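Fold it.
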Amino acid sequence: RESLGFYRKNNIPIYGSGLNEKEACAPLLWEDHGNRFAFLAALAWWPDTAWATADEPGACYYYRNVGSIMDTIRKLSQEVDIVAVELQFAETYNPWPTREQVAEFRALRDAGADIVTGVQSHVPQAMEPFAAHDPGGPGIIVYGLGNLFFDQMQDWETRTGLIARHTIYEGRLISTEILTTVLEDFAQPRWATPAERAGILQSIFDAAPPRNQLPTPMPTATPPPQPADVTPTPELNPPTPTPVPQPGAVWPQPAPQPVDHYWLQRPTAATDNQLGAPTYAFGNTQNGRYRVHHGTDIANPSGTPLLAPANSTIVYAGLDQPPFVLGAYPDFFGNLVLFLLDQNWQGRPVYVLYGHMQSVAVGANQRVEPGQVVGQTGMTGIAIGPHVHVEVRLDEMDYDHSYNAELWMSPLPGHGTLAGQVVTPDGRAWPEVPLLVYRVEGEDRRLVQIATTYADDPGIHPDPVWAENFVVANLPTGQYQVVLRLRGNILTQDVTVQEGQTSYVTFSVAP
């Protein structure tokens, strides 16, 4: 009510929300230079406390009003020049729109919308333009704009965003210009450089959904019964359907009284980014796009100093080439440094690897102390954007002995770690299953991350103490709810994240 009152006091037109459901779902009609517009917006996402009701303010809930929304679009398409619809769909961190998303957005287009925009994605998503000869005439679907003013600085993709600038002339959409942005210093966007822009555009062009591959069913008025039901579904690209998850290997159990082992300093200074990228975390494949990830990626500009993680000896420093091939194949990590910690884990040697470095400043057999500069952030080897790849390896120094480095690096001040298992009753791990992590503050609940269980891969291993198959690192202390949707089950667990500690949850789901 306070927000709506502010807008009205200052004569700011609004749509998509209101003092009640009827007002929230009403279109905003607008005319400019003889061009007649209608704007609508709806929320197809949770929490339900955000939805307007007959007598309570909030957003227009899409699934409860989908029939009237479609009727309104059809009617307005005959009365105005441009119908523009915005839909807050399931939040995602992938450039590929999900199958559900494509079907729903195309249905809005088929009903008569000229411009359909998704405002849910934390990374730029694909676009789908329509020409004058297409049914419905010229138009465009913008599946997701990414982050513009936001705080997700830990990953290159979440720092990027799109602004779609539409040109309307004599009642027709004649062009859409795609402007590209990059976040700096938390919530301060700048224009992308030409090279950055090329990369952003290539990503969304590669993610464009194939035409006529999917039928465009009309949406139903039956909403998902629980928040987890809007978990992203398999992506369109690659076009082969993602198989139904199947349980994998038998998984170990956590220690009876697990104790944290945050022995490592983070590889960058407090004045630089110290957060690992959540979109390509340990054990992740980005829905099959990439090789299973064996480490944590911490992005910073090229040349950012990299610091030794602990008292240790340099085993190797240089190119990932024979006779020291420490990646999946030669030059996988480019310039790297391999540390052997002074401290063993129950008699087992502990190795730490920094990869993709621009330069190294240490040599083999050199002793280093925590915080000592050992090189610079870069993007040598197989790397997209400048970052340092951090791995922890137990027993052996080779590529197939990797453990999650986030359970060894100290959390940031005021932060903790969430770890857990998703297993079958007989103890087999469920691979590559998404979990939604919500921060809970009183009556408010906000999605903060979509975690994924580890892929089934012999080269990655659960922690010897925690035996986890998913980790969410560096969560601010407080109350959280973890939601899992799997095999028709919708399970939730509440958990408290404490500073400098690992909190743990377990889900058991039968095949």
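Confidence is low (pLDDT under 50) at residues 214-242.
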